[in-house]
Design a protein that fits this description.
By secondary structure, the chain is α+β, with helices and mostly antiparallel strands. The protein has one domain. The protein contains five helices and eleven strands. The strands form four sheets. Strands 2-1-3-4 form a four-stranded antiparallel beta sheet. The longest helix has 20 residues.
Length: about 210
Amino acid sequence: MPCSPIITLRRAAFVLALALLAGCSGNPAPAHHAVDTHPDDACAVCGMYLDGSPGPRAEAWISGRTKPLVFDSTRDFFAYVLQPENQSALQELFVQDSSRLDWQQPAHAAVSFIDARRAFYVAWQPLSGSMGPTLAPFANRAAADAFVREHGGAVLRFAEITPALVAALDFHCPAEVAGDQGARQCLSRPVPPLELSTSSPQPFSPVRPHP
């Protein structure tokens, strides 16, 4: 006996619901990974080529793109990702681990990048990036603290970095450092021992990769 129109509509609705559930329970799109950079890659903010640029670099996967945006400094990276109009399209974000690179000649290998949202950042440190003052990222807090003891600065997490902080970033510690955790200490660059104070300034050593 033929089905009534009401039964047919109910069956169609049931089949459609099953199809939607199947789609929702399917595997999500695979996460993006960091990729190798190249000397002729241009920074998405300042337009400068990576070749010859000192300091850690960054990558940002943006919805709808087949390749990540590349940044020649973490300062330019934050200047982009913190803009409200850019945030809805952000996907995976990566920065180079400062403890695994030569600051003056950073590597291009994807393995040198870490998850930007989980990294620890040293702000107000004296090592210059491509565009001047920049942030030094690290994969773990211990490495960031060791860097601060040698070079100065303060350790921040991703969520504590604001557009105002990036715009006012300098090589020297500000009078007061405030973050989500409250006020914190910002160490000035270590000074040479008293007996060396009259001699020529000692150059600070760049970050070198671990063996």
